Input
Amino acid sequence: MNEFSFIEYLKKKIRSTGRVCVGIGDDAAVLSVDKEKRLVVSTDVIVENVDFKLKTMSPERIGRKALAVNLSDIAAMGAMPTAFVISIGKPAHITTSWLKRFYNGLLVLAKQYDIPCIGGDFSRSKEFFASITIFGEISPHQLVKRSGAKSGDWIAVTGSLGGSLLRHHYDFTPRIQEGSLLARCVAPSAMIDISDGLVQDLSHILEASKVGAALDLEKIPISLDAKKMCFGNKAKALSRALSDGEDFELLFTVSSQKKKILENVWKKKFPKVPLTWIGKIDGEKPMIHWRCHGKTTRAPRLSQKGFSHF
Output
């Protein structure tokens, strides 16, 4: 049983009741607070030697990443962040000086998004970890889940993909403003942030929505870092763009009508953030069909199958 099948097991075992609007299985949980607002809650943990290496990343960058990955989950729901709490596992090799620098990096990003740290906890551990629970809010009619993609919808992605290991996994910009605009302007039928790789995260949308997709390989936006890591090999760079993970870009679906509206608004609001249409929702089975310049082609070889913690 892998990570995602275990999550499905938990979804069946733990029933959502009462004020739960969105439970286990999306980028964040959503609770009904009142008629005008929904409370959005997400949690993520980063662990030494899994999500970062102490020898290769500064404490400031690790602190920034700890909060940034949580902000990305809030963005994927179309919500705005309001506050967070953080729990730290501190091993003996982490000094107080190092920990102060970690918090400096975290709090600089928190100030950027005007979200306060309102509490947390410390514990002794064998390896360093930081677990953040973040809170956000959104209007009920703007909430975006993974499960609404429909046949004929266009599939889009922000930014470029692949090669995150070089630097992007710690210096990326959470797409909070972009996610909020999408929710307010075109209400995407489905949305997710790309943390485990484009193919794997698109598969989450397809499974939740019970639909298939056709992707155009020549339209996948490959990052300069992915090309650099592959020394110009196009096939390998494409493979990285499809499966590397930790891109933390937004992957979403919209109708043809809303696609035209979004294109006009996006250029004005985010001229420096690429928006790329990479395919369409097609079919009733949750699987990906591959195309290249309009013709059906075989599935590309992936650099990895997508990240799983199990």
